[in-house]
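for the record, two folds in this file. i put them one after another cuz i was lazy. first one right below, seq on top, structure tokens after. the second one comes after a little note so u can tell where it starts
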Amino acid sequence: MGTIMTTQNTVKVQLVRSPIGTKQSHRDTVRGLGLRKLNSVSELQDTPAVRGMINKIAYLVKVL
């Protein structure tokens, strides 16, 4: 079971700023990354698509 996690790289992101007052597409991206409340953390697979989503809302999140 543990080998599955080591073969696939993951990235942890934390919502550090409120998406209130941001573009609707940015709020949708926050939800798409699985982030709900402030300081919530989501562990995602490290794919180019996820990287692009993180770059889009880089001012709202922190990569752990």
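(here's the note) second protein begins now
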Amino acid sequence: MSADIEWQKSSFSGGGGEQCVEVARQAEEILVRESDDPRAVTRTSRSKFAAFIQGVKAGEFDHFVQ
């Protein structure tokens, strides 16, 4: 992973920085990682990530956290 990638954490993440999902943009891809294992990075397209975010906003994944 390149050191110049700017990872972003959610404002809902814990105060200590642990147990956070982080996202970054690199070229035309979106990178996703978990802060407790930053070497494990998942890559996806911007359009697929946008579809996922729309699903989250629509409540399609709420049953995972209830």
